[in-house]
């Protein structure tokens, strides 16, 4: 079934490691974990006019059988297609019990009702962080959040990432300053720069965004500006356009680049050609590529929005980014960028000499587990050679042969070394205790 | 929206603790974690004739709009209603790459398309462990798995549990020995014993299961037998019925009780009145109640099945149990059986004296986080009193006032104690480092 990625146990070890690592970084930065239900009312899912997102609608099988011709669902429920819409609903629903600014992370599956033949994910995991304020949210969060993500991604067994940023205020301020009124249309055209090239962009800005030839060339010059230091702002200003909004945007961009240079040099670059997202975000926007895997597209995107939600009395501005965990993991596992040292948690297999004496092996296992050593007991009292093969097939490094409890012998089946050991005190090397996740060039 | 439980951040801390704790116990016992997609073909979901389960069918919103009258889904997909059906499919699909016996745990949400007005969960989390063999699976796993669950549940901040067991072979062997042919019907009647009482059961066994009055009384006598030691088998034998299957079942029951008495005395009890599940399991069955919360029903159930799946060449017998995490958690949180020491991961809030000097506070935060201390920075350079209230509202125990880096002062806002500290070396007390989950009677 295409579009629904699923991993064998060794792939799941890598996925679990990635999820644990993300969670740890998010929590070190003070983000509280929440989980929302997978299901939202359709009215909520369509609230933002997100008609481009394919939604799965739910229907009770019993209802469908009873009234096969009835359209719609009894109560109009659908699966969430991202974690932002449910988070907005959660914030409104619980505003009275949350403390703002509220920093949350959320790692969950989302679903999109794509056509099966399109080869897109129909179920995938996202890992989001957002900060939302009540009525106001200081700019500094726009500089901090991409750095949290940079740290989170740097802790994963993946190639380095490059976070590209732009700012709605720069694009809008610039376009308005040069008299290019249809900002949205201009952004849509600029977004195609990579695909259609400069000449076609200049042409389209005139035919689709109502630009003059000069305006089109200026917009193109803006889009060509990239860089990871404050001189980016000077190069934009050198194009000659002036407006308060543009200045504000450039100041923000510079503050972000300065913070990034201090915390994580070389990770963040300003890129004035980034247009995707600028149409609905209101400040900084982010896209992230995996160095050497740019064709994968953005693995972590987001931005600043002035109104995540509003309940009539209060407005909740926010800034957030979302990692496409499944997209990332499919590449990591597909290319062997990271692998698990073994597909099972087990560090020790306790052998069973005789089925009548299984209780002795169980006792050894209890001693080892009580000290935090993941342990399995052989399923049958087969010949020891077969029991060792059981361990070997699963990558379990040690086999324990019980003697007079707690004495026994433990064999490292990789080296063949066997030595007497005490089940109450023996420890495997730390590196063997739990499965490890190894990058491409790490020794096993 | 009823039936879709969702927690505030402090509840999520408890839930996450429960999930982490379960995972750790399962992994210490050598179970490999897997995750399956939430979606299965309807044909798979209905394969077992599980018509009693309410399934949510998926439909692409776009298709529904295009053809509102078309019944069914383009590709017949539904949300899984348990983790056993998807696991069976996963085993068959990946049999060539799995090593058997295969021990897996799986912690995921499941969905049931109940009517909203029924007040039942429509989305909830289950935590399952299963062992499946290829063609054979030794009995000892039936004795081990409930003990893994007993250990997993004992590690949670909940009251003690009682695991009740029965064995299909005992019931079936007994009924057959006394000539009661319609085993399924008899089990259905016995299952109502609590509700309708002895007299009505004797009556119904005759009218619904074709029993004679003597057979009905004998079945009732069997159902009355309970106990946590091997004498249970003697009491069953004392009823006079004899058959090979009955003997096999009683031997298994005794082995299980003996193993339980050794590993976890007082946790497992044989209860011959348990009938639920016996109709589709083939050996031991399990139900688990929370002591003092029996009205909650079973929080962990399962059993032995001779054929989890079959691909024509091979059959995969298994034994497994499933914890109803959401059911358990709703009670735990609803009754305050466990609470989080704070709703955020943060141990330290770094104060900001002046917005222009935010970088100093960020530097302190980086030092603390680099040593694994979850740290937040004040959102604004408000008066210190307000910043302390920010920490207080979130239960953050420490506020850091930066000085000449790495020197500063740290205040325990609970005691008011403030002392000089070095951001490169200071450690909070271990108990304050991460949120803790406290049982009802534990001091905060």
From TrEMBL, chains A, B:
Q: Which residues form a coiled coil?
A: none
Region named Disordered = 409-444
Concerning InterPro entries, the annotation shows: aa-tRNA-synth_II, aa-tRNA-synth_II/BPL/LPL, Anticodon-bd, Anticodon-bd_dom_sf, His-tRNA-ligase, HisRS-like_core, HisRS/HisZ
What reaction does this enzyme carry out catalytically? tRNA(His) + L-histidine + ATP = L-histidyl-tRNA(His) + AMP + diphosphate + H(+)
Q: Could you say which EC number(s) this protein's record lists? A: 6.1.1.21
Give the family this protein belongs to, as stated in its UniProt record: Belongs to the class-II aminoacyl-tRNA synthetase family.
What is this protein identified as? Answer: Histidine--tRNA ligase
What lineage does the source organism belong to?
Bacteria, Bacillati, Actinomycetota, Actinomycetes, Micrococcales
């Amino acid at each position: 079934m295409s579009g629904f990625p699923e991993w064998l146990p060794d792939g799941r070890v890598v996925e679990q490691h990635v999820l644990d690592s993300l969670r740890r970084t998010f929590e070190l930065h003070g983000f509280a974990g929440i989980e929302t239900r997978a299901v939202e009312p359709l009215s909520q899912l369509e609230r933002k006019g997100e008609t481009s997102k394919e939604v799965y609608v739910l229907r009770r099988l019993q209802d469908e059988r009873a009234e096969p011709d009835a359209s719609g669902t009894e109560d109009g429920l659908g699966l969430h297609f991202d974690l932002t819409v449910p988070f907005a609903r959660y914030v409104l629903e619980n505003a009275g019990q949350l403390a703002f600014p509220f920093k949350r992370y959320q790692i969950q599956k989302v679903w999109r009702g794509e056509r099966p033949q399109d080869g897109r994910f129909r179920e995938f995991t996202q890992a989001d962080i957002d900060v939302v304020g009540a009525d106001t949210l200081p700019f500094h969060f726009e500089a901090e959040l991409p750095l949290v993500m940079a740290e989170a991604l740097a802790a994963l067994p993946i190639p380095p990432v490059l976070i590209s940023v732009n700012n709605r205020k720069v694009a809008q301020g610039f376009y308005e300053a040069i008299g290019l009124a249809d900002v949205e249309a201009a952004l849509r055209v600029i977004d195609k720069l990579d695909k259609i090239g400069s000449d076609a962009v200049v042409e389209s800005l005139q035919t689709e965004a109502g630009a003059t030839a000069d305006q089109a060339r200026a917009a193109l010059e803006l889009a060509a500006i990239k860089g990871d230091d404050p001189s980016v702002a000077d190069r934009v200003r050198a194009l000659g356009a002036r407006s308060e909004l543009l200045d504000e945007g450039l100041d923000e961009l510079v503050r972000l680049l300065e913070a990034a240079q201090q915390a994580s040099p070389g990770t963040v670059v300003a890129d004035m050609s980034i247009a995707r997202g600028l149409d609905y975000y209101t400040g900084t926007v982010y896209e992230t590529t995996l160095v050497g895997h740019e064709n994968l597209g953005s693995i972590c995107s987001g931005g600043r929005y002035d109104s995540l939600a509003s309940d009539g009395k209060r407005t909740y501005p926010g800034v957030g980014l979302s990692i496409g965990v499944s997209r990332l993991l499919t590449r990591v596992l597909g290319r062997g960028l990271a692998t698990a040292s073994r597909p099972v948690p087990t560090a020790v297999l306790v052998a069973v000499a005789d089925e009548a004496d299984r209780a002795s092996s169980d006792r050894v296992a209890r001693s080892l587990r009580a000290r935090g050593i993941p342990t399995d007991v052989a399923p049958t009292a087969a010949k020891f050679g077969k029991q060792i093969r059981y361990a070997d097939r699963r990558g379990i490094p040690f086999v324990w042969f019980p003697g007079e409890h707690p004495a026994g012998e433990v064999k490292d089946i990789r080296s063949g070394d066997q030595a007497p050991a005490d089940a109450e005190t023996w420890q495997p090397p730390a590196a063997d205790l739990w499965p490890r996740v190894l990058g491409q060039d790490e020794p096993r």
